[in-house]
Amino acid sequence: MALVYLRQGRTREAVEALRGALGFDPELADAQNNLGGALLALGDRTGAEEAYRNAIRVQPDLTGAQKNLAGLLAAHEDFLEAGYFYRRAIRSAPSDADAHYDFALALARRERFREAADEFKAAVALDPGHAEAHSGLGDMLGLMGNPSQAIRHYERAIAEKPGLSAAYLGAGSALAALGQRSAAIRRLEQAAGSSDPAVRQAARNAIEALR
After folding, report:
1. For 147-174, what is each residue's pLDDT tens digit?
2. What is the DSSP code (8-state) at residue 130?
3. All domains of the chain, ordered by start, with CATH?
4. pTM higher than the cut 0.85
């Protein structure tokens, strides 16, 4: 019943159902993991962290709980332990491209661009159609001074997911860095139509700078 509540967005009822199930059997790892997600959605970070840790205690190789705990820790600047759990998740599920992708995002937020690039590369090696990972790799390559390689990954991201506005913004910026003004403006104009206000404003600023 808890999963039905979660699908319906009835989070508080899901929490009660999960707690009821765990009252009968606290060793249900998936229920602990789902409880963590529900509590986090309700703003209970401490409860969510406890539930994720319980899930991992019960089932040490539960990748979803490892990724969830890592993401929660990274979001609250506990990067050392977050990195530990990201690496555990990758060891538990070596073919999980999203585990590498999530770790790459956390590394990028810490400005560890080369390490982040390696994780994005691992993600696209496992899932060549992972548009967000291609776009993220483009960002890292651009930051490391390689716009020509960055463009290839941005364009692959666009081909895989034409609505990914961040890839248009990145491609436009990389093209501008290579002096390809007209092509840069075309991509930036596409980014300027984004529903994401941050991408939209960044694209408009970049277009203005090129004109």
Report:
1. 999 999 999 999 999 999 999 999 999 9
2. -
3. 1-94 (1.25.40.10), 127-211 (1.25.40.10)
4. yes
